[in-house]
Amino acid sequence: MWKERYKIGVELIDEQHQELFKRLSEFIRTVQNNITWDEKLDKVKETMVFMQDYVVVHFDAEEAYQEKIQYPNIEKHKEIHAKFKEEINNYVKLFESEGFTEETVKEFSAKLMTWLIMHVGKMDQEIGEYVKGKGGEI
C-alpha cells in the first residue's frame, strides 16, 4: 500500500508512515485471508493495540515537528489527529462491549485504510509542500 509519492521529505515522519502502512497491509491481508477466525482474531487484537499506541507516538512526533517548523495549519492537523484517535478508541470500546465480529473488523480495517491513505496522501503532503517551500527539511 505504501507509495513513494506519500513521502513528505521528513525522514522520521516518512519512516513512521511506512510503518503504519506496513502494519495496516499485514492486518488487511490477515482479515482477507482464508484462515480460522481465531487466527484472525489474534492479528486484530495485535493491530488494535499497535494502532492505539503507535498513532499517539506518531501524532506526537508529527505535531512536535509542525511546531518546530511553525506550520501554519497545525491546529487543524491536531484536530484531525484527535478525531482519529477518538475513532480508534471508539472501536476499542465497541469490540470490548460487543466482541469482535467479522463485519466490524472488516469495517475497522476499511476505515483505517481509507483514513491513512487520505491523511498521508493529502493532508501530510501539505506539510511536505510547506517544508519544500522553506528549502527542505527543517
UniProtKB/TrEMBL annotation:
- GO molecular function (one): metal ion binding
* Alphabetized Gene3D superfamilies for the sequence: Hemerythrin-like
Query: Per UniProt, which keywords does this protein have?
Result: Iron, Metal-binding
Claim: Metal-binding is one of the keywords in the record = yes
Known InterPro entries for this protein? Hemerythrin, Hemerythrin-like, Hemerythrin-like_sf, Hemerythrin_metal-bd
Disulfide bond is among the record's keywords: no
**Family assignment from sequence similarity:** Belongs to the hemerythrin family.
Q: Which NCBIfam families match?
A: bact_hemeryth, hemeryth_dom
- Report what the protein is called: Hemerythrin
